[in-house]
Known about the structure:
17 strands, alpha+beta, seven-stranded antiparallel beta sheet, 339 residues, binds fe (ii) ion, six-stranded antiparallel beta sheet, binds FE2/S2 (inorganic) cluster
Amino acid sequence: MNAPTAIPDAEALRACWHPVAFADSIGSEPVALKLLDEPLVGWRDGDGVPHVLSDLCIHRGTALSLGRIVDGQIVCPYHGWHYAADGACTRIPQLSDPTRVPAKARVARFACQDRYGLLWVALEDARWPLPEVGEIEDPASNVVTAGPYRWNADASRQLENFTDFGHFPWVHPGLLGDPSRPVVPEHTVDTDGHVLRYEVVRPEAPPNDDFPVFGNEVTVEPERHNRYQLHLHYTIVLRIDWGGERRMVYLFASQPISPERCAGYVVMARNYDHDQPPSVLQEFEDTIFNQDQVVVESQRPEQVPFDLADELHMKFDAVAVAYRRAMRTQGLATGAVSA
Ligand code: FES
Ligand SMILES: [Fe+2]
């Protein structure tokens, strides 16, 4: 096909919260991170508060993430310039008075926050808050994380894959779908600003002895009830039940590292199976995401083509159609909205 006319708008996406790491992977040493092609460095101070700066020393462009933290400041590995957590350079050791620092000597500082076991970053003032997922913050929940799933694909393709109904029996037979029941049930999508809501009761795979992770008590042609919230740009909250008391919540968020690279984070909260080792659910998710990765990395173009004239949409692709339309309406994908 020709180059798509509407793709994710990296400039507009800067004003959104994105996950950049699991929160517990950022400690007192500097860690290199990347978001929307912007190199970042993150660390935690003595109180555990996270900080994120540009990973380019203003002096000669060295990666600050190769340096170290001294007294709460990050020290460049090349010439030892010190930067405070707000990005201001405070010390240039080569000067006879190291504190006579020019005002221009600073690097960009970015907003960050810990939530749901993830570190989130916004490169500019975020337009919308993070979704509310109280179940994950409920101490009574059984919370398990999985990922990050680093794919050679754009975050928009990874996001659409998570919400695509038609592929379950084909890509995940016996795990997320039943090949004998491939018909996608009727569903409609309600678009409310930057949030898409939709529900679907769909065939569940029969219970799988290798991965006893779901809560269906019915074993013959079981069904799962899914309530989705798709928060533009790349975040999904999925609430599942199987008609009984058991409940499961998925928070899925994809990190746009670059136009060809993304990382998917999964945070799950269940009100059952508290004694099950987290590895059971993690291995299940690893299996599912590996099955998806092969397919999604093959998709061309690499980024979702947001113009509805591109690709062929069927009625059962209603979510993708609404998503593509909303991304353009909200200015997160380039190009004017076509009718
Ligand atoms: S490059 Fe960082 S101090 Fe010189
Ligand atoms: Fe999938």
